[in-house]
């Protein structure tokens, strides 16, 4: 069960590294190569969005069917375990949301950079005419 969260954690860490790499100022040639490489990687890594969505649905289902520990029948250990499971679920929701949001940000940065390149090419053609 923890393997899926470990994978999602590594994917989010990789997405953060890619987002930082894309947003750092760098020479134009290096930036265009980085963007083209990341653009090639984006299509196969689209799996993260449905994977994170499925994990969110799983968290929601488990939350709806979780045994409540609010009465006086609960021991201190049961109450602690219940609170710990709630905190883990909240952490995992943040992780899933971050994975989807970072994927979207990387996609948009790459797309904006390609649009800027196209506009620069059009501008260069008009100057040459």
Kindly list the characteristics that best describe this protein:
129 residues, mainly alpha, 4 helices
Structural class: mainly alpha
Instruction: Give the termini separation.
Output: 62 Å
The Cα radius of gyration reads 22 Å
Apparent shape: rod-shaped
Q: What share of residues is helical? A: over 70%
Largest sheet: none
* Number of distinct beta strands: 0
> What is the averaged pLDDT score?
89
Low-confidence parts, pLDDT < 50 over ≥5 residues? none
Task: Please describe the topology of this protein.
Blueprint: H1 2-23, H2 28-42, H3 48-64, H4 76-128
Account of the 3D structure:
This protein has 129 residues and is mostly helical. The protein has helices at residues 2-23, 28-42, 48-64, 76-128. α1 runs parallel beside α4, α2 (28-42) crosses α4 (76-128) and α3 packs antiparallel against α4 (76-128). The model has no long low-confidence stretch (mean pLDDT 89).
What is shown here, in short?
The protein has helices at 2-23, 28-42, 48-64, 76-128. The chain is mainly alpha-helical.
């Amino acid at each position: 069960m923890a393997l899926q969260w470990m994978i999602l954690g590594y994917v989010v860490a990789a997405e953060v590294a890619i987002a930082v790499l894309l947003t750092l100022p760098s020479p134009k040639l290096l930036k265009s190569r980085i963007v083209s490489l990341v653009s090639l990687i984006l299509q196969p890594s689209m799996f993260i969005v449905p994977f994170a969505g499925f994990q969110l649905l799983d968290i929601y289902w488990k939350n709806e069917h979780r045994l409540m520990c609010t009465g006086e029948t609960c021991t201190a250990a049961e109450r602690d375990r219940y609170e710990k499971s709630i905190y883990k679920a909240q952490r995992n929701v943040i992780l899933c949301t971050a994975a989807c949001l970072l994927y979207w940000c990387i996609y948009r940065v790459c797309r904006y950079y390609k649009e800027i390149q196209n506009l620069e090419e059009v501008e260069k053609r008009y100057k040459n005419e």
